[in-house]
Structure formats: structure tokens, C-alpha cells
User: Fold S41 family peptidase from Undibacterium piscinae.
Amino acid sequence: MGSKFKNFSLISLGMVAGIAASVQFSAMAQKASGPLPIEELRQLADVFGLIKSDYVEPVEDSKLLTEAITGMVASLDPHSAYLDKKAFKELREGTEGKFVGLGIEVGMEDGYVKIISPIEDSPAYRAGIKPGDLITRLDSVPVKGLSLDEAVKKMRGEPNTKITLTIARKNEDKPIVVTVVRELIKQQSVKAKMVEPGYAWLRISQFQEPTVEDMAKKIQALYAQDPAIKGLVLDLRNDPGGVLPGAIGVSAAFLPKDVAVVSTNGQLADSKATFYAKREFYGTRALSDPLAKLPEAVKHVPMVVLINTGSASASEIVAGALQDYKRATILGTQSFGKGSVQTIRQISADTAVKLTTARYYTPNGRSIQAKGILPDLNVEETADGDGFNGLRTRESDLQKHLSNDKEAEQAKLKVDELEEEQRLIALAKKSKPLEYGSKDDFQLAQALNHLKGLPVKVTKPDAGKDSASDAEKDSKAEAKPDGKADDKKK
Assistant:
């Protein structure tokens, strides 16, 4: 069993960064399953030669071949990709929870980059940047018109290089200009606090290599603060996923010992596997098992797991496992639906291919691919609707997405796309980016209500089903602080 995990630890799941726990070195030729298609390869060579001889201007061989590889891999599904030198480096940094930058958690507001929180002792923290600040310019370049990803790329760079930020701050009449020196930043993927006496909030923003150890430390600190915790909220909203061992370890912290957490299936022999709540499957760098030090109460404390459309991959593994074992009530909105496994194959010293090699399944055999996790209690982001979360796409919206092999996908309603887009934008304008764990966090408030046995303001799921008021009555009747998911679907 240990050797099986050793091979499969090369495989992990994620959306944006932190997709691979390690890299498997092997010659691609060894994986060929049959004779090469000589005629098609000849056509590829003919097109290559035609471009070299007839195109309007010279094109480098390396550019043509790189683009050919990129297109070939990208044509498979949304998560398979060719990783050039820069992309491969960023992936490894994300997995390790490290990057070179300023040390800020950011979002977008009114076209500007909004500071959600500076990371403690980071360059941004020392420069006096505060939560709520709006970055309006980066090195004199206006932020308006840039996407969040484009702005983040401008703020990242090489160590010891400078960037000048122009900041708009509430109650300040003039813009604040700050020069910050980029440094190697260590990300903290786990946050925790007591939100009310007796009730704890534990947030995982991404599954990285240090996540299990960091989570164990946070849980120990919570129980040191209050040994008689009455309820725990595990917040996985907008968690894009990450390394598979992290998802197994987080699940194992709350589930009975040695139970199955997730299984996978694909063409490769190593992709047909089941992963259990054992240290060998969530292996950490620590000399001893970090979960062994957790108080026994964490296995039984009543739990709510928060998810939304941005919860994907590894976070769906955790939510699915806790839901299948009725260990926690899942509250929020339907998750993203990324139920596929990516393997990283290095093809040169600094490039690799990220290839989808399997689907994953919950302990009860459910495939989450293109469907996601359906919450036990459907609660939108605010009392007035789903806010910015309503603007997000899901796996099933992506072109060439892998199908769900367990059940047929439901046909999508045909609506005027422009009209729907305008409706969502209008909806989002009524709300501001949410700071998770704050006093204004509506979903967290409903999770606490459920743990206390109080009414939960659930959302009407679909036309023809229970109304919101009926569902609220149901949730009041069924809400018991026992840490188990309700059997009745809503």
C-alpha cells in the first residue's frame, strides 16, 4: 500500500496553483500505447515546413514547436496544459506555499485592487498597507482596465526589486504613494479564530504542502483557548484546491481513523486507487504525525462546512467525504465541480506537461466531475442573493470539460446570455467583496445558527421545489447541533 501511495503522490488536484505535490520523471516514449501515426506526423512536418518557407516573416523553430505542443495538450480538457519555464516555476512555488511578491491578499472593487489583508511581517505589512486600501496605480500604470490576474503578475517579480503603489485610503484626502521591495513570501493557507464564545472558525484558502501541519497547529490553539468548543465551521469557500495529500489530511482530522477518503480511476494502473485517513496517504514533512496531537474532541465536535462556486477539487474532496460520512452539514452553494486528477510529467529541465489522468470519487462512489457538491443547506452569499459568487463559472461551463461518468449532465436552460450577464452584474454591484470570517459574513452567521439549533435562512433552490420559507421551517425543525448532515435533501 505504501508503494502505491509513493507512486500516486505524484498526482494531485487543483485549479490555479499548487497542483502537483511532486514531479514524476519518465520518458514519454515509454507511455506510448501503440504504433505512432506516421501519416499524421508527416502532415505535421509538412505544415511546419510550409510555415517556415511561406509565412510573411520568419518564425523561430522553438516557437512553432512550443505552440504545437501547447495546442495539442490544451485541446484535451480545460485542466491539461503545457507548462513553460515560467508556468512550471509558478506551479512549484504555489505548491510549496511560497512566492516572490509584496505579501497581500487582494480582490477587486470598482475596478481597483482592494487589499483584503496584508500578510504579517511581509513587505506590504511593514510598509503600512492596510485592509480596505485600494491600489489605483502600479508603477504609475493605472490599475483600472487590468484584470486581477494581470495586476497580481505586475506585483510579483524577482526578489529585491521595487514597485511603487498608489493607494486610495478611506478618510484620506490625498493618494498615498508607497515603494515596496519584493521578497520571498510564505503563504499561510490556514486561518482560525473563535468567532463567538464556544464556536470556532477554521478557514483553508488553498491546499498546500504545509496545510495539514498548519491546520493541526491552529486547531490545537483553538482548543487551548476554549477546551469545550461547541461547534466548528470549516470554511472552504473560494478554495481552488491544491495537493491531494492536503485534502486527505484535512479530512482525516475529523473522520474516524483509517476510513476511505477518496478514490480515483483512470487508464494507468496507479490511477486506480483508494486513499484512506492514514498518515501514509497525507504524509507530511513533520517527524511525527501532526494529527496525532489533536484533541479527541475534534473527531466529534458538531461541524458545518462552507462551500460556494469557487470551492473546487481538493476542497470538494473534503466536503464530499465529510458529507458522505454525515460528519458535517454542508452549507452554502453548489461547488465548482472539478472532479479530475492532474499528473505533472517533466519533459525537460524546466518544462512539464500537466495531464488529466483520472477522475476522483467520494467514499460513496459519487463523481463530482461537472456536477460539484450539493449543499445540505442552500444558503447564498448574502441575504439578498449570491453577490459576486453569482458571476463565477463552473466546471460544466468550461469548453471541452470532462464528462461525469456516473450520471448524465442536465441540459442547460437556453437564456439570452447578454441579458443574464447584465442581471448578474447588476446583482454584484449591490454588494461589496466579502471578508470571510467577519461580522458581515452572512453564510458564517447561518452556519452558527445551524450549530446552535436556530433557524437558517436557506435559499429557494429551484422552481417547483420547497419555497424558501418552507425550507427555513424544515431547517429549524431539523437543525440539531450533532455535527451530522441532514438526511433530507433541500
Summary: The first helix runs from residue 2 to 8. The first strand starts at residue 11 and ends at 12.
